[in-house]
Amino acid sequence: MHRHLFHFILLMLLSLLSHSCSSPHTHTIQEAEGIMDQYPDSALSILEDIPREELRGSQARALHALLLTQARSKNYITETNDSLISTAVSYFESTDDSHHLMLALHYFGELNFNRKAYARSLTALFKAYDLAVRLDNKFWIAMSARMIADIYHENYHTAEEIEFSEIELENFRLAHRQPHINYAILDLAKTYADAKEYPKATQLATQLTDSATKYSDNHLKHIALRTIGTIHLRNQDYLAAIRSFKALRSSNQLNQSDSALLGFAYLKSEFPDSALTLLNRQSIGRGSSNSWLYYNVCMALDSTQAALSVLQGIAMHTDSILRSVMSQNLLGSTKEYYDAQRKIQMANLRFSHLTIIFILTCSFIALSIAIFIFYRYRRNKYKLIEDNIAIAQNLREIIAINDSKSQETIQTLLADRFEILDSLCKILYESPSSVAKKRISDEINFIIFQYSQNAEKLNELELYVNKHHNNIMVRIKEDIPTINESDYRLILYTILGFSNTAIALFLGEPKITAIYDRRKRLKAKLKNLNSSHKAEYLTIISLSTKIK
Fold it and tell me: What's the gap between Cα 343 and its chain centre?
């Protein structure tokens, strides 16, 4: 009962400790992340209600900073302060959370784009793009590519803008995300127009009008018509441009800028009167962003002085753009990014080389150990074979030196092994090869088992010794009732004439010195024995010096 109560209290303490270590707003942050795509306004409201000072732990603060920046972006709130998103980037760069790092880098790049820090933005967006490719996240590949294309557009790098606009459209299509696909088509159409690839631009813009009709997106349809009209103007196809802007006018979507463009199209076509009528109704002043349009209007109205003034403004504006582009150092930023990537790849390559060297070294060591163990095993095996051969030779000597009186009895006792011993010795002398030694070794191992562990054979040996040595084994048990089995068998094997080597094997002693030590102890015990047979026993123990 007390033990169960202790376990319950321990679990409660662990639960409280776990709760106290986590941020109290963790669940709320996760809830906001879950509804971010569908309900960004609700996510923003949830995240703004969380006091940052109540957030515990670097992870909670970093995730909150990332999601708050993302929610503001999705709600079209322009961020220029990078303190929040920098916290997220710094934290996720130190973790294995590639998805959140990708998002943090993307919004860090977007924020710097808003600040017109294009070089810094481009570096972050390249990193986000690479992470999206590594994660095979088609949607975020497209999002990063779109931002990169926007940077190149702002800096008049048209070739690079086309490349990433195409990547944007391809991956939005693979992600099956609308309306992102339609607006990616719009981006690519404008990019082709900037590159003067007017057929491609017109084809995409026309495709966009069809898609807008399919999805009942009138706003997108008007943008598509305006884009088509602008493309035709830039391509000097003024009649086609007039048709596009008239379609806008019929939908009551013709704004002041569109009217000016339509007037310019009239001016360049066969309708100068319509152009002047329309242009006179428009307030296209010198402050207009359409300076080139204003210049052409001035020329059409024979306002040479005004046209010259506009040209000067255009020159000053162009010069300003050139200085801005040169100050961005996009090429330097791109070079720094790829230099950093190259260093990372070199570091990974060095690590791979070290790993290969380590594996090869470990393999060499393991192979060396295996070879050492194998050769040691072979050496021990050969030694065992040599020992068994020595025993076989010793057995043959025992048979040869026994007196004729006991020869018949010994042959009867060892009848099942004598023929084997004789053949083993014959093989030994006639074929002293390793194969022969192995055969002898196997047979001798069996004999050792018979004369060391087989109770029936040991009893036969004991009866034989008692029969031919006046019941000496019986007398030893009577005179030394406390004698242990090993000492008793030592005397038995000694009387039979076995060498110390053979006796060591029979008794299971790993070293022959153990037999010498046992003889010394037994001899000392016999010297203190009060028996008329003491001298006989000592003589038997001393027989070990005769047979080695």
Answer: 20
DSSP state of 53: G
Burial of 506 (0-12, 13-18, 19+ CB in 10 A): buried
Residue 408 lies in a domain: yes
The size of the chain, in residues, is 548
Taking only the tens place, the pLDDT of each residue in 415-468 is: 444 344 444 444 443 444 566 566 666 666 777 777 677 788 888 888 888 888
Are 49 and 79 a contacting pair, CB within 8 Å?
A: no
Cα gap 180→172, rounded to integer Å? 6
In contact, 392 and 421? CB cutoff 8 Å: yes
Q: What is the DSSP letter of 454?
A: -
Residue 481, preceding peptide bond in cis (omega within 30° of 0): no
Last residue of a domain, one of 33, 50, 77: 77
Domain assignment of residue 533, yes or no: yes
Question: Would 216 be classed as within a structural domain?
Answer: no
pTM of the model: 0.55
Task: Answer whether residue 338 is part of any domain.
Answer: no
Write down which residue in 16, 45, 77 finishes a domain: 77
Task: Provide CB contacts within 8 A for 221, sequence distance 6+.
Answer: 209, 212, 213
- Domain extent, residue 41, equals 25-77
Distance CA 466, CA 70 (A): 104
